Amino acid sequence: MTQHNEIVLDRSDYSASLNSAADSLRADAEKALKRLLNKDCPGSEFTGWIDWPKNHGIKLANEIITWRDQLKVSYDCVVVIGIGGSYLGTRAVVDLLTPEFLDSGDSQKTSNQKIKKVLFAGHNMSETSLSDLLGYLEHRKPMICVVSKSGTTTEPGVAFRVLNEWCRKKFGHVESTQRIVAITDPKQGALRKFANDQSYKAFDIPSDVGGRYSVFTAVGLVPIALAGFNIHDFVSAADEVFANALGRTKGPHLNFILEYAQCRQAAWRAGKIIEVVTYPEPRMRNLVEWFKQLFGESDGKNNKGLFPGSLECTMDLHSMGQYLQEGSRTMIETFMTARNPRRKDQRIAVPKTGSNIDELLYLEGKGIDDINAIAVKATKKAHSEGGVPALEISLPDLEITTIARLFAALQISCPVGGLMMGINPFDQPGVEAYKKNMFAMLGKPAK
Ligand code: PA5
């Protein structure tokens, strides 16, 4: 029987051959997990995230909440500056939990919390985007949270220089020391030096945790707490998954971790090169972006790995759906769904008018989400019958605890698969190539 908090991997529309190949990889997956947890693997110097919630996260969450509650300034929105692993986890959580059309800097009251609008910068090099952000901030009082482990990444570096100048001009130095918080390497990098120099509050990103594995460190916890969400629940839920994986407790998460790695590996070994993640809620878009970074940056090296793509259901069925149905058969599709996708207070049904002038009489009284669930089911059937083997990651809901469990489970499953494929899942040497060209073209002086 499915437990209430269980993340279920449904393999009923995966092909018989991939299912049987996946089953035969169990021992390999267990071996890879053991190597990972024993830190006996390539990239082991970046495995500090394993069991992080229990070892540090719960204590850190308490420290962050105390700091936030003692801030000497009030704020009406939060700007998070960062790129890649330095912002995607936060963005995934914020998008899932914030009402989609919350558009002012004012907080929105729900039953037990005040949610602040969160804006993101430093993940592109767009002058228009930055200028629009400054326009938005003109009459607002933000907290500015700059996140960079290296402290030298160009995109967030430039955005922070602009926003830091703006903040100093608008609020002065003393107030800026309350409004700006840096999250960076404990000792090195330009951002650490700058934060120390300006007396800005700074939290550490541990040296042994890479960006895409860092959401349970201050990288995720500080901005998520500033946004008004319960980071204590967030880290505690992640701890349940680590406890299962490490054998401290028994529960459903270990099996999910291994099976998903086995299924992906079976696909890769059978010649598939793309995994399309299909999701039915617009607010899941950045959850899937987080997924794409985790798997894309971890797996994609030595000419190996499934390319992670995405499809928003039903929007993309009217564009990319054609390709899934009839394009090259190089893909698997992983549906990521929630058994209860609604926030507690929501329910909209197709209005009962008794008229069929819009030819929708047959839908009268049906919940919109129920129609959406049928759309997903119909899509899965069509695509799998069209030759794209389908998996489904079924989440209980889209609450903060479920997101945390999913993050933790995928953070473990991803390197298990990477180790089975013989790569180092914790580095990203390929990211340097574009930087090298850009620095040369911009005339960056050599150190
Ligand atoms: O996963 C990673 O390590 C990367 O995606 C980094 O998070 C990203 O490049 C940002 O780096 P930094 O935090 O050093 O600015």
SSE blueprint:
Layout: E1 8-10, H1 16-23, H2 26-37, H3 52-69, E2 77-81, H4 88-97, E3 108-109, E4 114-115, E5 117-121, H5 127-137, E6 142-148, H6 154-179, E7 180-184, H7 190-198, E8 201-204, H8 218-226, H9 231-245, H10 253-269, E9 274-279, H11 285-299, E10 307-312, H12 321-326, E11 331-340, H13 368-385, E12 390-397, H14 400-420, H15 432-442
Helix pairs in contact: 1-10, 2-10, 2-14, 3-8, 3-9, 4-8, 4-11, 9-14, 10-14, 11-14
Large-scale geometry? globular
Sequence of strands across the biggest β-sheet: 1-12-11-9-10
Overall CATH class of the largest domain: Alpha Beta
Bound molecules: 5-phosphoarabinonic acid
Order of helices and strands: EHHHEHEEEHEHEHEHHHEHEHEHEHH
Description:
It is a single chain. This protein has 447 residues and is of the alpha/beta class. The chain has two domains: 226 residues, Rossmann fold, CATH 3.40.50; 187 residues, Rossmann fold (3-Layer(aba) Sandwich), CATH 3.40.50. Helices cover 46% and strands 14% of the residues. It contains 15 helices and twelve strands. A five-stranded mixed sheet has the order 1-12-11-9-10. Strand 11, helix 13 and strand 12 form a beta-alpha-beta unit. 43% of the residues are buried. About 1% of the residues have low confidence. The chain binds 5-phosphoarabinonic acid (PA5). 5-phosphoarabinonic acid binds next to loops.
